[in-house]
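Re: folding output
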Amino acid sequence: MLINEIEDDDVMIEGAVFTTVIAAAQSYFQKIVVGIVILLFGFGLGILAQKLFYKILKEVGLNKIMSKVGITHDLEKNVSSVVSYVIYLVFIVIFLNHLGITSIVLYLIVGAVLMLLILTLLVGLKDVIPNFVAWLLLQRKNAIKEGKNIDIREIAGRVERIGYLETEIRTDNGDILYVPNALFMKSKFKVKN
């Protein structure tokens, strides 16, 4: 009789352990499925936001506005891409938080993203800053003016436009050359009347 009770207790303990394991597996499986749905929703929203921002910026004419200032990059595409990446990052954080592994992984992801953004910014600005500073110095010294003829290195022609980053020079052949403003600080140039 005592042996039967011990065997029944062992069977009940094994059944309880099995039930607990199954319940935990179901709970983790549900968390993973919901997490995947969160990720898919976030990626879909990111793609939708990218297309929407691109159309809005295209309607505003951001590239045309910025080209008047001297910035010739495709800012419409770049800004809409950054918006989508931010949305992706937010939904990845929500996904990790849902799984309960936010702290260390979140710090690693945010650190990597910040490092990438800083490096991208530094690489992107390595040409912008010297050209802008050169433009400021050229404006301050009144060294070159639109309509004047100029010789710099192997380039000779008439100054058409002085932008924040580059200067347009029309050669005698009728070609338009875009000369970075920093070149005027690095090289000797001659202004003719």
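--- second protein (sequence, then structure) ---
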Amino acid sequence: MALGIKSGDQVEVISGGYKGAVGRVLTTFPKKGQAIVEGINLCKRHTKAKSQRQPGGRIEKERPIALCKLMVLDAKTGRGTRFENAIVGGRKVRKSKATGNEI
């Protein structure tokens, strides 16, 4: 599967319980077709206290979400957009299909 979404991209969730939410991609898993997005798909993890410095309790952490549910944000419009790979000035860039701007 060709990855179009990279770490550090701003993305919008287009389906599911977090539909419409926006976040930054922290990590991608190309073989699984998933990504971890900041503030999206949160779950509570119960941890046992290891020492006084690391107390136990419930920790909220992000879980992976399928790439097919994410769209890259266009900086100009602030909405999710499809994109294409193009060569501009001898370098490969991603361009928005809607506005033609670099992502």
